[in-house]
Structure formats: structure tokens, C-alpha cells
Design goal:
Elements (H helix, E strand, L loop, with lengths): L2 H9 L4 H12 L8 H15 L8 H7 L14 H18 L7 E4 L8 E4 L4 H4 L25 H25 L11 E4 L3 E2 L4 H19 L5 E4 L10 E10 L2 E10 L5 E10 L5 H28 L4
Parallel strand pairs: 3-5, 3-6, 4-6
Antiparallel strand pairs: 1-2, 6-7, 7-8
Organism: Rhizobium leguminosarum
Protein name: Adenylate cyclase
């Protein structure tokens, strides 16, 4: 490989197909010694990253999808995701020291994140300086004329014409067969935001409940891979998830409760309470902070939950 090719190799990133082939190679290796759950962990974070959802790979999401934890999971008291990620990092390093030492695609999980990194292996200097093979010399008696046309016997011309038409028909058929089928494309998850209900008669609770629903729609709308539906725009039957909530005022404490319900079976997939002191923050500030926290919590669950129902991980 020449020095120019080596530079090109260093600058290229592997394609999604190359990454998935490398994942299969790693999982089938005897030098990659991990239990089935850790293998699902690695497969899950790689597929989510390739699908453009790496930003949703948080400990809470991985704990629910891979480890089967419920909505009460707390990463501080239950370090299962962090421990398993460290274990996978060590096994990947071991694999690339042994069987994968010559693999072109390198998969790592940088410390401090659960989003994997993909790169092409850098070519060593010894490999990069190998001389390129020169093409064989052209015969001295070879002569060519620019744009020269090759004369064919008349009896062959109809065969050439038929072959050209056949190739065109086959190309069109291939394009048609390779086109995505609308029936099999992935459904973008949708969330219906219902108006939050004020449980107490306090003005702060009433103002918070009304404004919180509007803020949630705006926050969710700014995120990717989510269709947001406001109450009244469409029925709950058209949404995969329903976001419900209530606001209660107790003295100076404002409690906001929210839950995400899967419409297909009524299961609560996420729930949380938020407590704020209105003596320290304005209602508008509390409302914006709570809406942002709820949006960033439920969006990845809706996206990944829909993906799991369409294509489960084995």
C-alpha cells in the first residue's frame, strides 16, 4: 500500500455494513468471552449509534432495554450499566490484542460515554512504504486512434442492440426491487401530550399545569425522531405513547407528576415526580426546567421502545 493510500485509509470511517460485519466477527470469536447479556449490550449500543440515536444512549435507557429494569432504576444505587460497560471495554481491548490484531475495523467504547466509536485501523509505516506495482509496458507497435469506432458485421448489430435493451430492463428492475417498501419502513414514534391536571386550587398549580403542557410540546418538538401531538389535534388511537401528568401545590412546595403510557397495552413505561420550592424559583423557571427534564427522559424511551417492538434484539 502506498503512502497516499495509507493516508486515505486513516481518514476513512467504516461503513455501517463494515461495522456490523466486525460486530459479528467479534461476537463469534473465542477470544471475546462475555455472557449473553453483555453481548446484547454491545449489539444494542452499536445498532443505536448506527441508526443515529447515539445521543439517547444513557444508563437509564440501557438499564431498561438490556437489563430489564423498571422506571424506578437509579444509576447511582444500581451501577449495573457502568460495571458491564467497563467489562465490555476490557474484552474489546483483549480481542484486538489477540485474534483481532489484524482486523481493519476497530470498535471501542470511550470512557465516560456509552456511545461506541468506529474507525479504520491505521496502516503501519512499513506497510505504507510498499512500492506500487507498475502496469506492464505497452507494445511498441500498438497504435490507437482517439474516439475510433469498431466496425461490426451487420449480422452482429442486432445482437448488440438486443443486449443493450436487455441490460437497461434489468437495471430498471433492480432499482424497482431495491426500492424501500413503505410497509416495512420503521414507524417514527409519536407521543400525545395530554393537558396536565391541576389537583389543587392554588393559582400556581393551575398556571403550572397549563403552561407545562405547552412547554412539553415545544421541548419534544425540538428533539429528533419524535412526532409530537397536542391534545385535540388527534386522538390517542393515532399515537404510540400518551404523556399524562398532574400538578399539586402543598404550601410552598409544587409537585409535578408525569408518566408515559404505552397505548397498545396501557403499560406505564416511565414515571417521575418533581418537587420544587416556589419561594426560591419562579413558576416559569420551574415549568421550563420540569418540561425539559421530562422531554429528555421520555423521548429516548419512545424511540428505542418502538424500535424494539419492530426489531427485537436477540
Amino acid at each position: 500500500m502506498t503512502g497516499a493510500n495509507a493516508d486515505t485509509m486513516r481518514s476513512l470511517k467504516p461503513s455501517p455494513d463494515q461495522v456490523m460485519e466486525q460486530l459479528d466477527r467479534i461476537l463469534s470469536s473465542r477470544d471475546f468471552d462475555l455472557p449473553q447479556r453483555a453481548r446484547r449490550f454491545l449489539q444494542f449500543i452499536i445498532e443505536e449509534t448506527l441508526d443515529g440515536r447515539g445521543g439517547y444512549l444513557k444508563a437509564f435507557t440501557i438499564a431498561q432495554v438490556v437489563f430489564g429494569r423498571d422506571a424506578s432504576f437509579d444509576a447511582q444505587s444500581d451501577p449495573c450499566v457502568r460495571v458491564e460497560a467497563s467489562r465490555i471495554r476490557r474484552e474489546l481491548e483483549r480481542y484486538y490484542l489477540l485474534e483481532g490484531s489484524q482486523d481493519d475495523v476497530v470498535i471501542t467504547i470511550p470512557k465516560g460515554t456509552y456511545v461506541p466509536s468506529f474507525r479504520m485501523r491505521e496502516v503501519s509505516d512499513g506497510q505504507a512504504t510498499a512500492p506500487a506495482q507498475k502496469p506492464p509496458p505497452m507494445p511498441m507497435d500498438a497504435t490507437f486512434t482517439r474516439n475510433a469506432a469498431v466496425a461490426l458485421p451487420e449480422s452482429w448489430q442486432w445482437l448488440v442492440t438486443a443486449a443493450t435493451i436487455g441490460a437497461f430492463v434489468l437495471a430498471q428492475a433492480w432499482v424497482w426491487l431495491d426500492a424501500p417498501n413503505p410497509a416495512t419502513t420503521t414507524t417514527i414514534p409519536s407521543i400525545l401530550v395530554e393537558p396536565f391536571e391541576p389537583i389543587s386550587q392554588a393559582p400556581a398549580a393551575s398556571a403550572m399545569s397549563q403552561g407545562l403542557s405547552y412547554d412539553l410540546v415545544n421541548k419534544l418538538f425540538s428533539l429528533k425522531n419524535i412526532v409530537v401531538k397536542a391534545d385535540g389535534a388527534s386522538s390517542a388511537r393515532d399515537s404510540l405513547y400518551v404523556l399524562q401528568g398532574a400538578v399539586l401545590m402543598d404550601g410552598e412546595t409544587l409537585r409535578s407528576s408525569a408518566r408515559l403510557v404505552r397505548r397498545s397495552d396501557g403499560a406505564v413505561v416511565w414515571a417521575e415526580n418533581y418537587y420544587d420550592d416556589i419561594g426560591k424559583e419562579t413558576v416559569f423557571k420551574i415549568q421550563s426546567d420540569v418540561a425539559g427534564s421530562i422531554a429528555t427522559s421520555v423521548a429516548p424511551l419512545a424511540v428505542i421502545g418502538e424500535r424494539q417492538s419492530a426489531s427485537p434484539i436477540y
